[in-house]
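Repro:
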Amino acid sequence: MFLHKTVKKVGNKIYNSYLIQESYRENGKVKHRTIANLSKLPLEIINEIAKLLKEGIVINKLSDIKELKQKQGKNYGALKVIYEIAKELNITNVLGISNKGLLALIIIAGIIIIHKSKYHISNFWAKEQAISEVLNFTNKFNEDDLYETLGWLSENQNEIENKLYKYSKNRENTMFMYDITSSYVYGNKMDLTDWGYNRDKKNGTKQIVIGLLTDKNGDPVSVEVFKGNTLDYKTVENQLKKIKERFNVKEIVFIGDRGMIKSEQIEKIEENKWKYITAITKSQIEKLVNEKVIDMSLFDEKLCEIEYKNNRYIFRKNPVREKEILENFKEKEKFIKVKLEKANDYLRKHKKAKVETKIKELRKIIENRKIIGYEVENNNNELILIRKQEIINEYFKLAGCYCLKTNVSAEELDKEKVHEKYKDLFRFS
């Protein structure tokens, strides 16, 4: 490349043109083509560019370049991505372009991007975002407006879910997955808070229970909040009614875990001639083994299947899970042995200490840690661990073993597909 200067005289005026050109060959002839016209640039910059092209010298006269002022613009990218995803999922169509609908989108984007409170979203985050450019929303809003929007979403939840399901690509879906979680809550002014099984391990706090219903691909269909002390299986009837009456689905395959679908729920499902996929508990597996329905030798890394009383039982042994259980037990063994040694050391140094007190402490640890097959006894004021091998062997007989139960026929879903759909429950939830 090179700088080409042309001079043109028109009347009494002279015009200089400065072009960056390059040479190329065409049919054996050397030709030139223009890459850029620099004529409007200041002459000193054109001269520096000419030097750069000729000698490879970078402009170094910083004094000739005026200092550029910089200003941070509003953040655009993340908000735009979320908006486009919302459009593709028809969320924008369902929420509409009303003030509340657009504020709902702002809440969604704010929670996804920064995971902070409504106060932070309204007072800090929103000022940094290109909300007017992306959402065409220019109204001012505060924390109260966002909370009012949450109220609007709650009041219109059923209608919103119905419309989203109508727009869904899977609206012909007959397979639904359902699972629950819980969330701890500070304060005591929420109607649904109560004491319950705390999955967050936040002892001393009340909670709410949240149920999520999805289609076969894991796309959310409905969410429902229950009182904090609600048992898992007690939430299922609402979901079955919702699928039948609100979404107008006639044939259902309902997928839930062993704590969700029990005999009572199975009866309700079968009353409507619907189908289910679930798992059975360890004690139920043991019962089938004891009744000779399942042979222990059939538990293998490969899936195995039997039919019994109009149900299919699909089972296997997961060697990875079996190894995890064994390693976990070994860690517990080490832990209780260390605690025992410390207790004995304490008793040797404190002759007046009560042996029974230390025994109670260790038994409590064994109970809380569920260290199967171990007992603590006093042997002449020396604490010893009694290892009951038969109990341990019985406990590990089913280590890594699990069993699915379904009334879906093999013609509808083979055992591999049933297994895959049950695993999806945990993959998507």
